[in-house]
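Pinned message: reference record for Histidine acid phosphatase-like protein
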Amino acid sequence: MLAKQLLFLSSLIPILQAQETVLGVYIFHRHGDRTSKNFAPASLTDLGYYQVHASGEFYRNRYIDANASSMIFGISPDLVKNSQLNVQAPVDTVLQNSAAGFLQGLYPPVGTTLGTQTLANGTHVEAPLDGFQLIPVNAIASAASGANSENSAWLQGQSGCNNAIISSNNYFFSEEYMTELNKTLNFYHSVLPVINGTFTLAQDNFKNAYLIYDLVHVSMIHNTSIPSDYLLTPETVFQLQTLADNHEYNLAYNASEPIRAIAGSTLAAQIVQQLNATITGKSSSQIGIQFGAYGSFFSFFGLAQLPAVSVNFTGIIDYASSMTFELVTNATVTNTSYPSNDQISVRFLFSNGTASEHPLTPYPLFGQSETVLPWNTFVDQMNQFAIGNQADWCAQCGNSTGVCASTTSTGSSPISTGSSSSSSGGISKAVAGVIGAMVTLAVILGAEALIMAVAGLRLVNKKRLGGRASPEPVSAVAKA
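Predicted structure (C-alpha cells):
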C-alpha cells in the first residue's frame, strides 16, 4: 500500500515542476475618467480615481498579495520595496494622478502594526494615514504619451517627432478622410443643437470627431441635463463613438507609414527594456508600470498586428484600460536557481476598462497563433518596430534640433536577446526611453477640397472591445 502511495506521489512531481511562475510584469495603463478635453486643463474625476484604484487592487490580488493567484517571484507582499517597482507617467496631471491612485490600490496602507517604527531611544512612531505607503511616480516626457497630453486635442503633436507629425497630418489629405468628411457632414449637423455651446457650425464635422465625441461622452456621464438631449439616441451616440474610433486610429497608425506609430515603437522598446531588467536582475526589479494615453495603445496595437485578431482593437479603449506583459517560466525558480532565456516566455493580456470589472484576457501578438511566446521570439518580433535609443529616434523622426542637434545615427540598433544558454538570461540593456525637446512643426495646408454634402448616413457595425456592440451604459454612479 505504501509503495502504491509513493508511486502516486512520484507521478505528481512533473506536474508540480511544470507549475508556472511569474518572474515579472509590465503594465501599460490608461488614466481613469476625466473632465472633457474641450475645457483645459482636464482633471481626474472621483469616478476616475475610483476606477484606477480598483484596477490597482485587481493587480495586487493577481500578482502581489500573499494569496495572489499569480504571485510574482520574490515580490514583497505588504510593505512596498521601491526597488522592485519602476513606475512612470508623463508630465500630465491626469496621468500622474491616475498612477498615484493605482498605486494606492496596488500597495494599500499597512495599518499601525506594520506602519510603526521604533527609534533608537525607544520611541514608537506611527506612519500617517494608517500606514499610507509612499511610492514615487517618475515623471517622463516621452514620445509614448507626451507632456500635458490630456489637454491636447490630438496626442501626436506632443511626441516631438517631426516625421510622425507629418504622417498623421497626411491623413487629413487622404481620400479615405475626405470621403468620411463629406459623407458624415449632415450627421454632424444633426447634433449641432447638443454641442453648439462649444462648437460652431464650421467646426461641427468629422475633422473634430474625437473632441465632439469626448464632449458628449463626458456630458452623459456627469451632466444632469444636456441641451437637446433627445437627439442623443443610442444609435447616434454609437455613431459618434464609431466615427471617433475611425478618426483616432488612423491618426495613430498606418501600415504603409510606420513612423506614424512612433508612440508604439518607443513603448515597445521600454517594455523589452523593463522585462530584460527583470531577467538580468533575477527578479530584483519585477514590476514596470507606465500610464499613458489611448493613442499609444492604438499605435502599439497596429504594430503588433492585433487588429487582425479583432477589429475591436481599432476602437478607442475605455478609461482605466490596461495591457499587461507577463514574464513567465515553467522551470523551477529559487533564490539560487534562475531560468535561462530559453526557459522564459511572455504572455500578452488586455482589459478594456477597469480590470476588476472587465476580464484581463490573453491575445496572440505579431500574427502568431499562441498567446505565450518564447522570450527570444518576443524580443525578435518587438525589434521589428521598437525604437529604443536616441540616435535611432532622431534619425527616424528626421529631427535635427534640440537633443538631436549633435546626434549622428549609426543605423538601426535592434535589441539583442544575447545568449540563450546563459543562466542569468537577459539582453543588453538599452538606453531607457526617448526624452526630447518639443519641436514646433508648421504644416503648410494645401487648397481645401470642395465639400459636397451627401444625403444619408452609414452606420458602421463595429463592436467595441470587451464584446460590446454598443457604447457602455453611462452613469454618474461609479461602476468601475
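Pinned by admin. Summary line: The chain is about 35% helix and 10% strand.
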